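pinging the channel bc i need a second pair of eyes. not urgent but kinda urgent?? the chain im working w is below, pasted from the shared doc
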Amino acid sequence: MRRLRGGMNRARLLLLSALFAAGPLAAQDFPVDPPAGAGPAAGTTPPETLASPQEFLSPLAELVTPLAILDRLVVPGTRMQLEWRPGGGISANEIPSPVVVTRGAKPGPVLCLVAGVHGDEINGVEIVRRLSHSVDPTRLSGTVIGVPIVNVHGYSRGTRYLPDRRDLNRFFPGTRNGSIASRIANAFFQDIVSHCDMLVDFHTGSFDRSNLPQVRADLTHPDVIEFSRSFGNTVVLHSPGNKGMLRVAATAVGIPAVTFEAGAPTRLEPTEIAQAVAAIERLMQQSGMREDPEAAEDAALVPDPAAIGVAHPEPAPIFLDSRWVRANSGGLLISDVTLGQRVQSGQRLGRVIDPLSNVERYILAPVAGRIIGMAQNQAVLPGYAAFHLGTETSEQQAVREAAEPHSPDPVAEDPDPEERPEAPELSEGEDYE
């Protein structure tokens, strides 16, 4: 009996082996290719209750790697304060420039915030310091590189210039074998600027002048135009800049860059500082580097995106053309307007008093506009640029005028530093940066 059962078991095994050897289709419960006429028609979608495999596969998140800068690695989700000093012993005896690197936990662009290129313009120093240390790296998408003091030589002496009286903002991107200004500019460009995807260079008015918070940009570059739209309702002034400026050199290598002017030199002005900080926070929100806390809060309460857009419309930038209004006589300048004030054509902006003859001469607005820069009350000479008057225009008009060829008498912001022992004078429609 056991032999009979054993023989039956062996027969069953031989039968199963034959079935498997016949091919994989014979062993399937459901054929891979159903017979004609069976199953759903070709081209039909599966039932809604049947989930596709893609629904269970989350997209791969972009990997954020450490940032290699100044011989250090800054890991994602952290902040690190580094030191920058030009190579070659240029500033071996000087205090190194602080560089605050905030590497976000999520991927995004690298925003560089730079100040102190002119050592006496300290509003920008506080703006960059405040922004660099307030960004939360765990919630940041991208990286913020903050350099509050580039020109430590000038900052330590309370002056605009380097020790040899050169203006650092006329030598970018610099050279390795040039003057001290050219070498410092080259080292900074290679060590810091080369890591940037976009750059904001903070300045103030110079030589006892104050500027309304404003963005200066070369609107002939489409990427710079797009960049300038992200600062909220900040004044945007077309200015091609001069050769050697940091923003001009950065834009030339494909890094959208602007100058942000705010206030006057040698002093800290809380109102101007707060406006600039708010503009950069708006820039970071527009660039996707950080979330708008108000929008995030409203999203939890109002699920309709259209309703959110109505409640919090994005502020638009204000595009301006500009000109300088000059004093036609020498004497004591006393202003009758304030920074940011709107004026009418023919309105009195200030007066120049000759203390010897006791004669007053008025300075009148040639056109209606807004005071975006002005000199402090002081003794002036004939031809002194006293009031920077901006006239509002549209973005399209500003871009169109920016693309037009320059007049035979080109605008210059500053003559060659090598040729001037003292402060230069302003040209029509321009200001120092």
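so Residues 25-30, 296-302, 304-311, 407-429 have pLDDT under 50 and may be disordered. and Residues 300 and 336 are 49 Å apart (CA to CA). — does that match what u expected or am i reading it wrong
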